[in-house]
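Case study 2.
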Amino acid sequence: MKLVNAEQMRAIDSHAINVEKIPSLELMENAGRGISEYLSENLLAQMDNPSIAVVCGRGNNGGDGFVIGRYLLEAGHKVDFFLVGENDKLSDDCRVNCQRAVTAGRTITPIANESDLPDFARYELIIDAIFGTGFSGAVHGIAATVIDKSTRPSR
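Prediction:
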């Protein structure tokens, strides 16, 4: 397996979109489907009906999360979606995939402040789709709180 860093991934995406003319939504769909299949076959198959939280940001990584969660739903898993931040500031691809999750029958629970935080301890799997390769700098605000609480849920 070969791993790439953020700069290399951005270059691969750019080449696929601009040179190979693969629409970004198609790339997102393929990546999300692949990740959900991998999770289903390699992790979730070993768990007894796990509860899954997909925590999405407002950018394209959030769009990836919505795709992953939608495919996990289609595979019969229990999935709850959370959106960190305001839903009126989504990237175009994230907005499309957020709507697709809603169309699939799911409610997207916004996390705008600390009082909106779910009890992450009730989930066996938490998928972090908050930030992607375009992120730089320090995490702050509600995103920092969500990351802290979801990586160290109290049990």
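The domain at 6-151 is CATH 3.40.50.10260 (Rossmann fold).
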